[in-house]
Amino acid sequence: MKILLTGGTGLIGRHLIPRLLELGHSVTVSTRHPDTARARLDPRVTLWRDFEGHHHLNDIDAVINLAGEPIADKRWTAEQKQRLCHSRWDLTQRLVGLIHASDTPPSVLISGSAIGYYGDLGEVVVTEEEPPHNEFTHKLCARWEQIACEAQSERTRVCLLRTGVVLAPRGGILGKMTPAFKLGLGGPIGNGRQYLAWIHIDDMVNGILWLLDNDLRGPFNMVSPYPGA
C-alpha cells in the first residue's frame, strides 16, 4: 500500500513507520518540518511539506492521521487548549478536503482520538457506545472525530483511535517519569483511585496494522483491558 502518515515524528509514528516499511508498504509523511523529519526517519520515507502542492490523494491507498500538539508538554492554559484543539481539527479538515477532492480516494482513514472522549468516569467501565460528557477533553475529541467522519463514504472507511496513555521504553509518559524513579524520587502520586487507561506501544502499532488490513470502521478503544491506578 501507499500510505500517507501525519504525526510521523511523534511517539506512535516513530514506532509505526519501521513496521510499515518492514511489511513492504510505501510510506509518505506530511510534516511542517521536513528537514527535522529527514534526520529522524528512515531514508526510504517520502516527505511532504505540509501537503504543499498536493490537491488530492489519488495515489494514496490509506491515510493514518496521528498529528497534533503534544497533550502533556505544557499547562492547559486557555491559549494552549486552543492549540491542542486546532492542531488536530484544522489538519484533519484539510485531510478530509483532500480525500473529497480525489477521484480515487484512499480506502481508509485511520484518525487519532483519545479516551478523553469519555471524560473522567473513575471506576465506570465504558465501551465505544458510551455517550459524551461535557468536559474539555471530550469536546476536543468529539469534534476531532466528527471532522474525520466527514471522509466516510462507500469508497473510504473511517477508523477512530480512542487511545489511552501510550507506554514505551523511551519517550511518552515513561520517558518523563523514569529519570526521577532512577534517582529514588518516585513514589505514590495519588490515593489509588486515579485510573490510568494505558496501552503498550507494540499493541498500539499492531492495532493500527489490524485496522489497516481489515474491513472495519468506527471508534476503537486502544487500551489494555486492565487500567492502572
Automatic annotation (TrEMBL):
Q: Does the keyword Cell cycle apply?
A: yes
Q: Name one GO biological process term.
A: cell division
Report the domain of life of the source organism.
Bacteria
- Spell out the InterPro entries in the cross-references: Epimerase_deHydtase (IPR001509), NAD(P)-bd_dom_sf (IPR036291), SDR39U1 (IPR010099)
The record lists the membrane-crossing segments as none
* Keyword list, A-Z: Cell cycle, Cell division
Every copy of the NAD-dependent epimerase/dehydratase domain together lies at 3-214
- Name the coiled-coil region(s): none
The record, for SUPFAM superfamilies, names: NAD(P)-binding Rossmann-fold domains
Pfam families xref list: Epimerase
The family annotation for this protein states: Belongs to the NAD(P)-dependent epimerase/dehydratase family. SDR39U1 subfamily.
In Swiss-Prot or TrEMBL terms, this protein is called Cell division inhibitor
**Origin organism of this chain?**
Klebsiella pneumoniae subsp. ozaenae
